[in-house]
Amino acid sequence: MPVTTSQQITRYYEQFANAEVTFTKEVIRTTMLNTKHVHLKCQGSQWPCILYASSMTSARIIANLGSSLNEALKKSNNVVQVRYSFHEPDKPDPITFFIPGKVAGITPYGEKNKELFFASVQFTQRPPDGLIQILGELLEANVNAKRRSEDRIQLTAHSVKQLGIDIGACALSVNGVPRKAIYRDLSFSGCRAILMGIAKLLADKSVVCSLAFQDPDETFEIVGTIKRSEPVEGRSDIAAFGIQFDEERVPMGYKVRINAALKQFRTKAAGND
Fold first, then answer.
1. Where does a domain end: 146, 162, 181?
2. How many separate domains does the chain show?
3. In terms of domains, do 179 and 164 share one?
4. Is residue 80 within 8 Å of residue 69, measured between CB atoms?
5. What is the pLDDT of residues 161-193, one digit of tens each?
6. Are residues 128 and 196 in the same domain?
7. What is the pTM for the complete model shown?
């Protein structure tokens, strides 16, 4: 993955400071949030909490407002710190930081547990660059997945290395049946692959593209549909098939990978002009 520069960090903050990211299971997996080490700190003590959502200027957490935390909030006039923790690939220790803020509102979480509450925390200073980068990459990837949905990455020896894609571990199935495939390009919205089969018989068939990446190792199972085909010269038993992904089911981690690679290629192209 490319190194994020201070200029990019500044741009992320200027563009996305107030954009909120909800920490679904997929987002937790993509960001590698260390959920067991997210805490609310107040009056020198820490209480475990659930990070429900976060922007670069605020957070929404779910916490047990038992008597001890409730008392601490009263004594501190709602002044707190939110402890974030994220795993880092190939590193034994997570990245951890505290962000100072103030509890701006508290609402009940539900009827089942009377001590669980949503707490909205407004940050009182700009967060560390680590959080800006993590949220910025997600938000930018989502924006570009729509804005540059058709930008394609041709899978050459160079781009495969830049992407970190493990071509040998990639696979594809059509209507649940595994088929040998050679991937030729990738985009946010789809891909092109060479398959054995008669084009007219595979038109509009449902496929699952299994795309394996390294650093860190992860595999994305992306559902799509065969939308077009192109003949391969001299071969009637194979064709190049254009596959359109189901937009609502494209994994967040895949979007981040594609976005990072496209940024690298654009930066290199600009530098060669």
1. 146
2. 2
3. yes
4. no
5. 989 999 999 999 999 999 999 999 999 999 999
6. no
7. 0.89
